[in-house]
Structures are given as structure tokens and as C-alpha cells.
Design brief:
This protein is 31% helix and 0% strand. By secondary structure, the chain is mostly helical. The longest helix has 11 residues.
């Protein structure tokens, strides 16, 4: 019986399986969202989910000025 030569890839060349991340609970997700710094809009000065380019107040002001 002949011995076959097997190609064994180095462990660095093999594609590894990814480790699954654990699922975070609602409280944990809320705390992370709270820790994120919110942008301050330079038009209205509010710390909400918008900035100068997407400010709803700026859009209203531009609409009034064009009329």
C-alpha cells in the first residue's frame, strides 16, 4: 500500500469560522445609544438626530424666503 501525501494548509492560510457575537438585551442597547454623542445643530441649537444640512427649521426658513 502506498502512502499518499496530503497537503496540509498552514493554520494561518485556512479560512477560520467567525465567533458569534452575543445578543445584547434592550437595556444594554439603550445604554449604548444614550452614550453616543449627539450632534448639535448650528441653526436651531438642538441636540437631536440632525445637523445643519438636514435641519427641518432651515428648510422652513428657506421656503419662507423664496416666497
Amino acid at each position: 500500500m502506498r502512502a499518499r501525501k496530503l497537503k496540509v494548509l498552514s493554520r494561518y492560510l485556512r479560512k477560520r469560522k467567525r465567533k458569534r457575537k452575543r445578543l445584547k438585551g434592550g437595556m444594554e442597547l439603550a445604554m449604548e445609544e444614550k452614550e453616543k454623542q449627539r450632534r448639535t445643530c448650528s441653526v436651531c441649537g438642538k441636540k437631536e438626530k440632525h445637523n445643519k444640512r438636514s435641519c427641518p427649521m432651515l428648510k422652513e426658513m428657506l421656503a419662507r424666503n423664496t416666497q
